């Protein structure tokens, strides 16, 4: 494997805490219908060299969270509160030019649809090399060499020739690879992959996942990986965050959350999502009801209107009090630890095997 140079790899002496630390993040959008609470008090940490998987139904706030980390939500349209610390540097209050610098050097994103990141009007090579020149001060020749090297690395055949192609001359899988190459041009310390392989066939998907793992090993990047595919999550992620209605409802290592889930929503997700890693055909059970309105979320636990186990919690706790999410391995649910264990073993686990 070719080794690419990386000057910024050494951890700074300032980073006493996690590499990325998100604390009580809230993102709200003002709309004609009212205020959308897209992210509503989210906290998590991520270390270098580790991958955090994020799962949750459509609209649970996964993309908004990550676009906010990258500073892509304009404060004019979104109200952002809380803290996002990248190596101790506060991003919520950072100026746009600082964020832009970080986006070129330290953090990058791979989107589900490469056409959101690649412009149809410029060659792929130009789109890879120009930001690199801008951010690193590299010469045109150096930037071109680097872009060709990255295109080769992501498996684009004849990268020197393909450098001058426009995105429409690439196949869907190649565009996805080109976008990954673009995200990796500056060896990002933080890579956010938002459903990066959903649109690809299984073979290309496997190649790209391998590629991300190789690159992570080489550069020690931290990765946030969003996907609806639990097979991909178990293959890629170290830790897992389950999101519901803009909040984290369960977190732990992938092994803990997938093997011993403790939140009724996670049980619902596991029963409703196909598992490509399983040999056994599993009957899928959709979660009844639909995600809550973020304009007017339910009081108490946001999952309570859909929860099949609400009646096992005494009184009106589920509708009155928002269950907190403790640090570390935790689930935000009013059921007791014993109840969760019994329900999981008796009612949920038999459905998953
Ligand atoms: N600019 C915006 N203005 C108003 N509401 C927004 C805006 N961007 C996102 N939202 C709302 O915020 C909520 C969270 O959206 P988000 O895109 O983060 O969901 P997601 O978890 O990524 O879903 P998916 O799995 O479908 O990608 C949704 O209800 C969405 O409609
Ligand atoms: Mg999304």
Task: Sum up the structure in keywords.
single chain; 353 residues; alpha/beta; four-stranded antiparallel beta sheet; 12 helices; globular; disordered N terminus; binds adenosine-5'-triphosphate; binds magnesium ion
Let me know the average pLDDT.
89
Query: How many helix segments?
Result: 12
Give the helix level as a range of percent.
25-40%
Low-pLDDT residue intervals, each spanning 5 or more residues: 1-15
Q: What is the global morphology?
A: globular
State the distance separating the first and last CA atoms.
Answer: 39 Å
How are helices and strands ordered from N to C?
EEEHEEHEHHHHEHEHEEHHHEH
Find the structural class using helix and strand composition.
alpha/beta
* Rg from alpha-carbon coordinates: 21 Å
Largest sheet: 7 strands, mixed
Which strand order does the major sheet show?
6-7-8-3-9-10-11
Q: Which percent range describes the beta-strand content?
A: 15-25%
What is the number of E strands? 11
Each distinct ligand: adenosine-5'-triphosphate, magnesium ion
What do you see in this structure?
By secondary structure, this protein is α/β, with parallel strands linked by helices. Helices cover about 35% and strands about 20% of the residues. The strands form two sheets. A seven-stranded mixed beta sheet has the order 6-7-8-3-9-10-11, sandwiched between helices. A four-stranded antiparallel beta sheet has the order 2-1-4-5, covered by helices on one side. A hairpin with a 2-residue loop joins β1 and β2. α3 crosses α4 and α10 packs parallel to α12. The longest helix is centred in the middle third of the chain and has 18 residues. The structure holds adenosine-5'-triphosphate (ATP) and magnesium ion (MG). The site of magnesium ion (MG) has 3 residues, from α1.
């Amino acid at each position: 494997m070719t080794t690419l140079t990386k000057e910024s790899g050494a951890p700074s002496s300032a980073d006493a805490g996690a590499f990325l630390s998100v604390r009580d993040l809230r993102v709200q959008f003002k709309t004609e219908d009212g205020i959308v609470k897209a992210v509503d008090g989210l906290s998590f940490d991520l270390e270098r060299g580790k991958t955090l998987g994020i799962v949750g139904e459509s609209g649970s706030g996964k993309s908004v969270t990550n676009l906010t980390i990258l500073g892509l939500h304009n404060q004019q349209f979104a109200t952002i509160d809380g803290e996002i610390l990248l190596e101790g540097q506060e991003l919520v209050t950072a100026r746009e030019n600082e964020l832009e610098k970080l986006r070129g050097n330290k953090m990058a994103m791979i989107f589900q649809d490469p056409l959101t990141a690649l412009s149809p009007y410029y060659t792929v090579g130009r789109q890879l090399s120009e930001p690199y020149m801008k951010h690193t001060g590299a010469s045109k020749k150096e930037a071109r060499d680097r872009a060709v090297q990255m295109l080769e690395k992501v498996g684009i055949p004849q990268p020197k020739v393909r450098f001058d192609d426009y995105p429409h001359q690439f196949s869907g899988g190649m565009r996805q690879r080109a976008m990954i190459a673009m995200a990796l041009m500056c060896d990002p310390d933080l890579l956010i992959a938002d459903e990066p392989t959903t649109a690809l066939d299984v073979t290309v998907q496997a190649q790209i996942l391998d590629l991300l793992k190789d690159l992570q090993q080489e550069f020690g990047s931290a990765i946030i990986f969003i996907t609806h595919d639990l097979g991909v999550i178990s293959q890629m992620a170290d830790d897992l965050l389950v999101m519901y209605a803009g909040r984290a409802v369960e977190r732990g290592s992938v092994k803990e959350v997938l093997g011993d889930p403790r939140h009724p929503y996670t049980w619902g997700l596991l029963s409703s999502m196909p598992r490509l890693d399983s040999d056994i055909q599993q009957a899928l059970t959709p979660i009844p009801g639909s995600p809550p309105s973020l304009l007017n979320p339910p009081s108490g636990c946001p999952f309570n209107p859909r929860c099949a186990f609400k009646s096992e919690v005494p009184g009106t706790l589920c509708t009155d009090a928002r269950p907190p999410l403790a640090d570390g391995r935790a689930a935000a649910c009013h059921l007791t630890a014993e109840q969760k264990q019994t329900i999981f073993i008796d009612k949920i686990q038999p459905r998953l095997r």
